[in-house]
Write a structure and sequence with these properties.
With about 70 residues, the protein is an all-alpha fold. The chain has five helices and no strands. About 65% of the residues lie in helices and about 0% in strands.
Length: about 70
């Protein structure tokens, strides 16, 4: 779970989640991010959408502990 939302069945580490957000902030497409991280573009989209619903900024997410992000 991430922010109380169910995620894709594909496993992703918090490190990958932060990397997804970093790459998105640089303007990469979901397809390019997925290819870079060896996950599907759909998974990238799911994680970005779930993250956006939390109203947490990328900068604030970097400061959170993993347990705070997934609770």
């Amino acid at each position: 779970h991430f922010g109380g939302l169910k995620m894709s069945r594909e496993n992703i580490t918090m490190r990958k989640l932060i990397e997804v957000l970093r790459l998105k902030s640089l303007g990469l497409t979901n397809r390019a991010i997925g290819k870079s991280l060896n996950i599907s573009a759909g998974t990238v989209s799911n994680y970005i959408n779930a993250f956006l619903k939390t109203h947490i900024t990328y900068e604030n997410a970097l400061m959170l502990e993993e347990s705070e992000l997934i609770s």
